[in-house]
C-alpha cells in the first residue's frame, strides 16, 4: 500500500526492466546505449529514484519500443506534459490540486477501463455541475467561492475521458444510498438522476445498482476504484480514497482480491437494464 508517486515509479521501473530484458540487454549495455552509468538504470528500474520523461524516451528508443500506446502510457507515468502530442490539462492546476488528486487524474486519463464501487456519492465522471458543486462544498467546509469554481471545473473536465477516442470504459456499482441521499436539494438530485439514466445508455458505461434489499455485502468496507490499462496489466492499480489522501495498491494479491470483490458485487447488483429502470423509478418517486 503506497502513495501515488511511489506506485508510479515502481510500475514504470518494472515495465522498463521488462522491456530491457525483452530487448536482450543487460543494464550495463542499456546504460552505455544512452550514455549513462549503470547505477542510474538500476535506480530507475527499482523505483528508488525519479525519472524524467526525456530519460524514459531515451530508454524506449534504445529498446526499440514502437507501440505508441505503451509509449504514451509510460511517458505519462513519468509525468510528461505532452505524451503523444496530448497536453495533460491538469498540470495547469498544480497550485490548486493536491499531488494525490493529480496522480488520480493522470491514471484516469491513461486507463483503458475503470471499475468503481460507490457507496455514498455519484462517481465524479457522472456528476452534473450542480451536484459536483454541492458535494465539493460539503466535503470541504469554508471553501472560497473561486476555489470551489476551480474544483468543479476540474471535476467536469475529467469527464472528457468518456468522450475520448477510444473512450474510457466505465463499470460502476452504486449502492442504493447514492440514489437516495439528497445532495444539493430536490431539483439538483432530480437532474443528477436524469444524468445517470443518460449515462447508463452509453455503450462505454455499465451502471448497476446494489439495492438495500441485497443486505450486507463485500463493499460495506468502503468505495474503491480499479484502473486497468490496455497495454499491460502490470500497470493496473487499486485506489482507495481517504479524507486527506489516496492510497494505491499494486500487489497482484490486492488486485485479485478487489477484482473478485467487484465481480461479486456485480453479481449481487441489479442487471444494467433493471438498474436503469430502478434509477428512473427513483427519479420519478416510484
Automatic annotation (TrEMBL):
HTH cro/C1-type domain ranges (all copies): 16-70
Cross-referenced Pfam families: DUF5753, HTH_31
Entry-linked PROSITE patterns: HTH_CROC1
MF GO annotations: DNA binding
Protein name stated in the entry: Transcriptional regulator
Record lineage: Bacteria, Bacillati, Actinomycetota, Actinomycetes, Kitasatosporales
Amino acid at each position: 500500500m503506497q502513495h501515488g508517486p511511489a506506485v508510479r515509479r515502481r510500475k514504470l521501473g518494472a515495465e522498463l526492466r521488462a522491456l530491457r530484458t525483452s530487448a536482450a540487454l543487460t543494464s550495463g549495455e542499456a546504460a552505455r546505449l544512452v550514455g549513462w552509468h549503470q547505477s542510474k538504470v538500476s535506480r530507475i528500474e527499482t523505483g528508488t529514484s525519479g525519472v524524467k520523461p526525456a530519460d524514459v524516451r531515451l530508454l524506449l528508443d534504445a529498446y526499440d519500443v514502437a507501440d505508441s500506446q505503451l509509449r504514451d502510457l509510460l511517458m505519462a507515468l513519468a509525468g510528461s506534459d505532452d505524451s503523444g502530442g496530448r497536453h495533460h490539462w491538469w498540470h495547469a492546476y498544480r497550485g490548486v490540486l493536491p499531488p494525490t488528486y493529480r496522480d488520480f487524474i493522470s491514471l484516469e486519463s491513461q486507463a483503458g477501463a475503470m471499475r468503481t464501487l460507490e457507496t455514498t456519492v455519484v462517481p465524479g465522471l457522472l456528476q452534473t455541475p450542480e451536484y459536483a458543486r454541492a458535494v465539493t462544498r460539503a466535503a470541504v467546509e469554508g471553501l472560497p467561492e473561486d476555489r470551489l469554481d476551480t474544483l468543479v471545473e476540474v471535476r467536469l473536465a475529467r469527464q472528457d475521458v468518456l468522450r475520448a477516442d477510444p473512450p474510457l470504459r466505465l463499470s460502476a456499482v452504486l449502492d442504493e444510498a447514492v440514489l437516495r441521499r439528497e445532495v444539493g436539494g430536490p431539483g439538483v438530485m432530480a437532474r443528477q438522476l436524469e444524468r445517470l439514466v443518460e449515462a447508463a445508455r452509453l455503450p462505454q458505461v455499465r451502471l448497476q445498482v446494489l439495492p438495500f434489499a441485497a443486505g450486507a455485502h463485500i463493499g460495506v468496507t468502503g468505495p474503491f476504484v480499479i484502473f486497468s490499462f490496455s497495454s499491460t496489466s502490470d500497470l493496473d492499480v487499486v485506489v482507495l480514497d481517504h479524507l486527506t489522501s489516496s492510497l494505491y495498491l499494486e500487489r497482484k494479491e490486492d488486485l485479485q482480491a478487489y477484482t473478485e470483490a467487484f465481480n461479486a458485487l456485480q453479481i449481487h447488483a441489479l442487471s444494467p437494464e433493471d438498474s436503469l429502470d430502478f434509477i428512473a423509478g427513483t427519479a420519478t418517486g416510484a
